[in-house]
Design goal:
Length: 442
């Protein structure tokens, strides 16, 4: 019964390993931010900058390493790459233990933690594309949307479980326990992947010897740029990240200033987004194929944009909680659809390079959005207090409203462009059929 729900034995093992490791990552990141803010940097003016540094070093590997990692992921055996990466991440997290155990100078302790976060996230640039390719080997196409939905369930559960668990462990047992538990989560993932059985395609020695990094990298870029669906997906996701990234940087200020809530209520507000994402993953993973993967993308993007605009107008805690819950549901559709679309549109030997183009650019758009939003609220919009049509506009809610408009525009563009791309793809396939038939008759 469990295998049927989790598609097959091999995917069930992958899913279990991912669920454990993402919960470990979530509790590690939230605990690290709290430890810096409440312990290491208590009452220090540099504490907010130090916490922001954690976000920066966790985002940099996608941009700095991701594109290059894709070339090697496409060359290497996927399961072996995942095993090596999990073993390395176990050791990397354990190497940060002196920061928690020893009375070292503060810059040294921060440096050890930053390096651990950076290196572990670098490992993810190899692990995640390998996992995507391996799912393509293990899961039939008709079940890939469900597999992606299950991954979203694991991610949502990590937000709901990992955040409170991390804070509880930090208060009760200290940062050492969090580091050990996160390292253990990677080791458990290693053991579960070790049980996965997947045949690797044989690559001829001649073809492998003719490959260079530059040639493979250029080939991947050329393939991505020539695929209409993938290019439309990239543009749509970049546009929505340019809009939606602001919520990551400013939501705490929106909650304090516009909703007038405290820290406890803000935690509930954040948890409601995770709960919405969990519900969306459970519901949509079962009906994704019937709805259509491309419809899930543009429909989810439009709804997310509308939801963000509605959220920007909230002034009370309970209505805002309901809207952010629905926003979590809306964002699940595109998240579920992306992986099956990549597997459908991409040959197996290019999956690493395709994901390593998509992820850094969308990640970069999110970082730009956060930086611009923070700069606007702190400078040009700092004193904004306007009223139009009986509606009041302040700095943060104005940014959120603009971000929602941008996100909705990205969804509308995706609806138009993906429909055109799909129609063109069908036309190309139909045009190829007579040629094939003629060749067979000859």
């Amino acid at each position: 019964m469990i295998h049927r729900f989790l598609i097959n034995r091999n995917y069930a093992l992958l899913f279990a390993g991912e669920s454990i490791s993402v919960i470990g990552d979530e509790l590690f990141m939230i605990s690290l931010a709290l430890w810096i803010a409440l312990d290491l940097g208590r009452s220090q003016t540099w504490a907010p900058l130090a916490v922001s540094g954690i976000m920066v070093v966790s985002a940099l590997p996608s941009i700095a390493v991701g594109a290059a990692a894709g070339v090697f992921v496409d060359r290497w055996p996927k399961r072996r790459t995942m095993l090596i990466t999990d073993a390395a991440r176990t050791a990397i997290i354990l190497s940060a233990l002196p920061a928690a155990l020893l009375d070292l100078p503060i810059p040294v302790r921060l440096g050890l933690l930053y390096v651990a976060v950076f290196l572990a996230t670098c490992g993810s640039q190899f692990f995640n594309p390998s996992r995507t390719a391996l799912i393509g080997d293990l899961v039939p196409e008709s079940e890939r949307a469900r597999a992606s939905g299950l991954a979203q369930i694991a991610s949502s559960l990590s937000m709901i479980v990992g955040s409170p668990l991390g804070s509880i462990l930090l208060v009760a047992l200290g940062l050492t326990s969090v580091l050990v538990l996160d390292a253990a989560s990677f080791f458990m993932s290693f053991l579960l992947i070790l049980l996965v059985r997947s045949p690797e395609p044989v690559v001829s020695v001649e073809s492998a010897s003719n490959r260079t990094f530059r040639r493979d990298f250029t080939e991947g870029l050329r393939f991505f740029a020539g695929n209409r669906v993938l290019m439309t997906l990239l543009i749509s996701l970049v546009v929505i990240m340019l809009g939606a990234g602001a919520i990551n940087a400013l939501d705490v200020f929106f909650a304090l200033r516009n909703l007038h809530v405290g820290a406890t209520q803000y935690g509930i507000l954040s948890g409601s987004f995770g709960a919405g994402a969990l519900l969306g993953a459970v519901v949509l993973s079962g009906v994704a194929q019937r709805i259509g993967l491309l419809r899930l993308v543009w429909g989810g993007l439009i709804l997310a944009g509308v939801g963000l605009m509605a959220y920007s107008r909230m002034t009370a805690f309970l209505p805002a909680t309901a809207v952010i819950f629905l926003l979590g549901v809306a964002t699940t559709g595109p998240n579920i659809a992306v992986m099956p679309i990549i597997l459908r549109e991409t040959p197996r030997d290019k999956i690493g390079r395709v994901t390593s183009v998509l992820n850094p650019l969308t990640q970069g758009a999110g970082i730009i959005s956060m930086l611009v939003a923070g700069a606007l609220v702190g400078t040009a919009l700092r004193g904004l207090h306007a009223t139009a049509l009986g509606t009041r506009f302040g700095p943060v809610d104005s940014v959120f409203l603009s971000s929602g408009l941008v996100a909705a525009a990205g969804g509308i563009y995706a609806a138009w462009a993906l429909h055109g791309a799909e129609r063109a793809t069908r036309r190309d396939r139909a045009a190829a059929v007579p040629t094939s038939a003629t060749e067979q008759s000859v």
